[in-house]
Amino acid sequence: MDLRLNALTNSAVNGLNPATSQRTQRTAMPGDAFADSFKTALQNVSASQAKASELQTQVQLGNPNVSLEETMLAMQKAQIGFQATLHVRNRMVQAYSDIMNMSV
Q1: Ramachandran region, residue 56 (left: φ > 0; alpha: ψ -120 to 50; beta: rest)
Q2: Is 24 exposed, middle or buried (0-12, 13-18, 19+ CB in 10 A)?
Q3: For the purposes of burial, counting CB atoms within 10 Å of the CB of 39, is it exposed (0-12), middle (13-18) or buried (19 or more)?
Q4: CA distance linking residue 42 with residue 47, whole number of Å
Q5: Phi-psi bin for 34: left (phi > 0), alpha (psi -120 to 50), beta?
Q6: Measuring CA to CA, which residue among 1, 13, 16 is closest to residue 50?
Q7: Which of 36, 15, 33 lies closest to 24 in space, CA to CA?
Q8: What long-range pairs does 86-94 form, CB within 8 A, spacing at least 24?
């Protein structure tokens, strides 16, 4: 499971969308790459939690094809991913609060 966020490219920073050569109604914004990366990371965390939950159910049902070790490993990966996501969220909320409390 890869939870790394991709770095912004120069074209993303400049607000250009390299995937489309024609002008669209909505121009890509600099934060779009970050938003897409964050959305993908959240989807990966959600998928790992769903996998861990499914493996846990299979172990409880006594499925001989699912090992307890595999289940525990999947649960730990899901927990670490969730904790990392929670820390990122907390940092983003703190940054937003700091910006909103700045005097102009």
Answers
A1: alpha
A2: exposed
A3: exposed
A4: 9
A5: alpha
A6: 1
A7: 15
A8: 88/38
- pLDDT at position 52 is 95
Classify the C-alpha dihedral 58-63-67-68 as positive or negative.
Answer: positive
- Nearest by Cα to 41 from 8, 93, 80, 2: 2
Alpha helices per DSSP H over the chain: 10-13, 31-60, 68-100
Each residue's pLDDT tens digit in the chain (104 positions)?
454 545 545 444 454 444 544 444 667 777 788 889 889 999 999 999 999 999 999 999 999 999 999 999 999 999 999 999 999 999 999 999 999 999 87
Give the model's pLDDT for residue 25: 61
- How much is the pLDDT for 104? 79
44 phi and psi, to 5 degrees? -65, -40
